[in-house]
Amino acid sequence: MSGPAAPPTAGDSIVTPSATVSPSPTQAGKDRLLETLRTQLGAALIGYHDGDDGVVCVRVQFSGYRHAAEIVRAQGIDRLDFITCVDWRDHLTLTLQGYGVENRLQVRLSTRVARDGQEVPTVTDLWSLADWEERETYDQFGLVFAGHPDLRRLLNPDGWEGHPLRKDYVDRVSITRPQYF
Amino acid sequence: MGPNPQMPPDVPERAVPEGDFRAADDVQDFLINIGPHHPGTHGVMRLVTRLDDEKVAGLDVRIGYMHRSLEKIVENRTYPQVIAFTDRTADYLAAMHNDWVYCLAAERLLGISVPERAEYLRVIVTEINRMASHLISIGALGLDTGAPTYFLWCFEARERLVRLLEEICGARLTYVYLRLGGVIYDAPPGWFERVRGALRSVIDEFPSYRKLFHDNYIWHERSKGISTLTPEEALRIGAQGPVLRSTGYRWDLRKDMPYSIYDRFDFDIPVGTTGDVYDRTEVRVDEMIESAKIIQQAIEDIPEGPFLADRIPRIPTPAPGEAYARLESPRGEIGCYLVSDGGPKPYRMKWRGASFHNVAMLPALAVGYTLSDLINIVGTLDPVMGDVDR
Amino acid sequence: MSWESLLKPWVGMARGHMETLKQMVSPPVTRMYPKEPAQLSPRWRGPLRLRGVMDHEPPPVTDAEPLGFNDLMTELHEQRRIAPCQGGCPANVDARGQNALVAAGRYIEAYNLVRRRNVLPAVLGYVCNNPCEDVCRRSFLDDPIAIRQLHRDCYEVYDREARFPGHLENLVYRPEHVAVIGAGPAGIAAAYDLVQMGYRVTVYERERLPGGLLVTSVPLYRLDRKVVAQEIADIAELGVEFSFGVNVGVDITLERLRAEHDAVVVAAGYTGGRVLPIPGHEAEGVWSAIDFLYAYCMGEDPKVGPEVVVIGGGDVGCDCSRSALRCGATLSMQAHVEDREGMPAQEVEVSGAIEEGVVLLSEWGPDEILVENGKVAGIRLRKVASRFDASGKWDLKYSDEVTELACQSVIFAVGQRLNVDFLKGSGVEFDAQGRPLCDQSTGATALDGVFLAGDLATGPRTIIIAIGQAHETALSVHRHIQGLPLTEGRRPPVHPPEYYLEKPYAPNPPDFEHFGPGGRRVHMPESNPRVRVRTGEQVELGWPKGDGHREAIRCMRCQTHVCVACTLCARVCPDNCIDVAGHDTGFERRVERYDFMMEWCCFCGFCQDVCPTQTLSLAADFDYAERERREFFYDREKMLRPFDKPDEMPNKDGLP
Description:
The structure holds three protein chains of three kinds. By secondary structure, chain A is an alpha/beta fold. Helices cover 24% and strands 22% of the residues of chain A. In chain A, the strands form two sheets. A five-stranded mixed beta sheet of chain A has the order 1-2-5-4-3. The radius of gyration of chain A is 19 Å and the shape is globular. In chain A, 39% of the residues are buried. Helix content of chain B is 46%, strand content 13%. Chain B has helices spanning 70-74, 83-89, 95-110, 116-144, 148-169, 191-214, 217-223, 231-237, 241-246, 253-256, 277-301, 354-360, 362-366, 371-381, 385-389; strands spanning 29-34, 37-38, 43-44, 46-52, 55-62, 178-179, 182-183, 321-329, 332-340, 348-352. In chain B, helix 2 runs antiparallel to helix 3, helix 4 runs antiparallel to helix 5 (148-169) and helix 6 (191-214) packs antiparallel against helix 11 (277-301). The longest helix of chain C is centred in the first third of the chain and has 23 residues, at 3-25. Classes of the chains: A alpha/beta, B alpha+beta, C alpha/beta. At the A-B interface, strand 3, strand 4 and helix 4 of A face helix 8, strand 8, strand 9, strand 10 and helix 12 of B.
């Protein structure tokens, strides 16, 4: 962006999805998404199920993560909720969640990543918000995103030792009182 | 935000060059460091700004100065204890919203259903909290643009709302009012009447505020046409909340993906047209009036009954699984992703803060406008650094 | 550059000057702030404070005569001083007071305190289904207090050391005469209350000995008959007359009873057995549970075959299947339509039955009894397909799967039947199912001077519910005789739900031994299941001396407004700013240390909510300023600091 954009004229480019959506776009969008995932991913698709609150939880092989994210983005999932990791001590689970403003379809995409040495392809070109989310994931879990334009620590200062949200991270300042539970 | 072509990728951590402030290759460009302690950043945030003759040509946002690792703390606390952290470690100006989104996720995970009266009480206190938060937001804009009187007026109006919250839960900012399965206290006698009175007084006084600030020529000059945004562009950069609505895009989770009992209320979603700084403020003002409408309806409809589900274990242990909940906070969408391994503590919590994403898109909004506009743009994003840094 | 853009700043400036001029000529507007003096909300969360700590406190005892008991409970409820166990008990037995007295070594006082409301403490100590333990707040730490077993322990000391029937505190003797029909728990409870009020009471009993279902239905291995006889003998010593072997309706009519007495309390209970009308139910060898247990308990040999099938998964079903083993059955099977977890029987009964060798047939229902020569030869069972419909209502559906079992006896434990023919035609109204109707809160029937008590008023429920109801009926009788209105000006019994709603608690944390004051629950020793089946000895053997004391000391003395160092506050604190140490061994119990780091507190109020004794409160006080940082460390004495205005320091409910 190189200057103030010209303001749109009123009523011209304003999108009002509430007025235009069909009664149940979610089911159709879900069927289409799952069909596309099945046909295009093939063996890289491990499985899917309905999660909490109607979220479509899709589990893919690590090799199919980037492809699955592209499919999900192309199916209208244009709002990114989060990208994060869960440390299961022997591996990490990378989870990405988003939903579509048009079809109200919520998708949670997860894949299994090795704790060390595996570089994850970035999705910053699909969702611009993924930039900081991936930076935060790198910062907290030490997961390297290949192709990220600016992969630096985000919340912790540069030069911080360790990745705090890993389960084996030991903080120097620890709990000083007895933990009852 | 995406890659930032205007910014050299290797900006050092201490980016203020020593000696000569001008970059070597271009005498027109120089770096200005704003923050971390600066009134314009609404907290501890550092903006490394590259200026091209007073216009912002590049912007690097540095955060983390208030990082307390909420997500790590939560891994060492039981499910009910987390509420004490979500409402002060995250967005502390809208603590009810944080508590609620955590409770939504945890209740989903634990399979707890909430009594009707508790849902209504949650709606009422949350909307009061939204109004109080918006009053700070627009008031602080007055402070940024040299209208401290307006700031004080807004604070005085907010005080009346905070009094209501103090009366029902005993705290003014970090209300630990919500519990898993409901709320901890019922409304005291006569509270609903006082809510009505306070709302009426705030809404009735607002024309005079408008006269003081919103209709002011100086404010118009400082806000109209600044940082305009089209709906398509807003969706691309991930705008949310009032910023998205100010572009004319009608999107509000309360209406479009209703949670709790919001589908029972009749209210509008105010939108702007150009998405500039002025519209973002106006959207917030209109939203307060809509919030007042919701509260009025909720007070009329609120049923009698229990306000806390019975048979909630003190130390609940959910089955292994995951749950996500999102809701519309004053600053946009906030979300809470909980993973359980079957133990009494959350195995992992991911907090999706609205301010975090708002600040992430700041370069896309501010580049091309002057340095003094940058302060206004930050103000309209209404960042709460507790929510950004967590 | 257009003219407009050149002109615009000037126009704005002119407008600004006009505004300034207007402001100058108009009088200044001053906003007062704050508009009214600040008033703190009663729920304000200020620095933590203790109302009191345990230090030579007298035991908290809720003791009143029958006439004043509900008034006392209402008063205590208004002060939020009723313990969950007492509120959860249908008869409002003061378990907290019992525990406190036992912890002080005052067993006999504890026994007399329990007898106030639970007229047969030792009997209930054997057979109660202990609703008090379900709501005990100690469950949050580890296990609930063994309240029921403590009743029995108190009795054993009382029996050994001070067999003293108690005395009548109320020395008003009234000439009116009340008849009580039925010497079961409800009848005894009503008679006990009435005799305490000063009335002359005669109890008419069909059997030759008192106790009702306690002697006719409760199996011998669960309840020592000597205890029943002695406890009722104590009550008889107070002046209650018993008339045994009188079958009302046969030996004496209800009209005559009404004419001879000023009021009649009918506490006849559900004494008829029920048999499902499936094919073959009239064969020899088919028993109803009531008849079978009567035969077993009263020493008549029921002569069951070596293989017995019991139908029903309730407590009575377990009683029957376990009793059958003691009557000579070698194989006792219990068929029930519920699954193992959904059985209505108490868990301890089911596990005891399994230990003794009872075979559970889960999700099987009776289909037909196979008869040979008029005798039971077997039973065909049908598998249950589903028990609930889509909306969660009870809707039993059977599948096609059947099985046939060889057996010589079938016992139906599927509910009880009324046996109150003498009430028919007397003026008492009946409902469509043939149950006598009465006012649920008072027990009064349509017939003047006739009251129902116990199971007749409430439907077949537990013994302690029957006793609780009988207390109310006794009050009604008193009001009827004195000519007072039955409900007007009368306080209903208090069962505050808000104290004990947090029913299911967390599972025991694995490493709690370091923290739980008083240790784990003292379990009562039980006899060997293989041996007790043959010898017929008691299942629960009673505690050795001292164990009851160890158990009672674990009580957290809920709602007493003194800190008892239960450490719950330290456990729920998200900031770990509380550290409590209690000293509670032997006969001493006190709070050794209470440390509070004020500067770590986040005023969430979790500790105040969880405090069982309601002693912690976040004081309505907002001056946190101190001269030195170390003064933010509050020790026990500082936690007990007095309030400036104690009248204005209500708790979160706005109550003192």
